[in-house]
């Protein structure tokens, strides 16, 4: 599929009103492609990653000096690649 033939692309989750998920919940939805013309597709996959990052700095005074403590954390909740179309050539 040539990029020039794609007018728009969107992922629409089934739970539009509340797009917050917790561990073990299934994320489901639809892939919408707005194309300028019909195209032949052999493979289409969606890659998604859920992650969180946090960083903060704390300071405290010890006598005449200020001591800083630097905290940070990063966690990957999921990393998934899902094939939507695979193998055979499809005209969309």
What layout of secondary structure does this protein have?
Blueprint (H helix, E strand, L loop, with lengths): L5 E8 L15 E7 L4 E2 L2 E19 L2 E21 L4 E2 L1
Antiparallel strand pairs: 1-2, 3-6, 4-5
Strand line-up of the largest beta sheet: 1-2
> How many domains?
1
**What does the largest sheet look like?**
2 strands, antiparallel
Which structural class do the helices and strands define? Answer: mainly beta
Distinct helical segment count: 0
* Unreliable parts: none
What value does the Rg take, in angstroms? 22 Å
Shape: elongated
Order of helices and strands: EEEEEE
Query: What is the arithmetic mean of pLDDT?
Result: 85
Distance between the termini: 10 Å
Q: What is the number of strand segments?
A: 6
Helix content: under 10%
The proportion of strand residues reads over 45%
């Amino acid at each position: 599929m040539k990029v020039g033939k794609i007018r728009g692309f969107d992922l629409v989750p089934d739970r539009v009103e509340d797009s917050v998920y917790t561990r073990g919940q299934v994320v489901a939805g639809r892939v919408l492609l707005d194309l300028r013309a019909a195209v032949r597709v052999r493979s289409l996959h969606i890659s998604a990653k859920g992650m969180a990052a946090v960083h903060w700095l704390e300071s405290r005074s010890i006598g005449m000096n200020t001591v800083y403590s630097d905290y940070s954390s990063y966690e990957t909740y999921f990393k998934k690649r899902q094939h939507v179309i695979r193998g055979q050539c499809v005209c969309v």
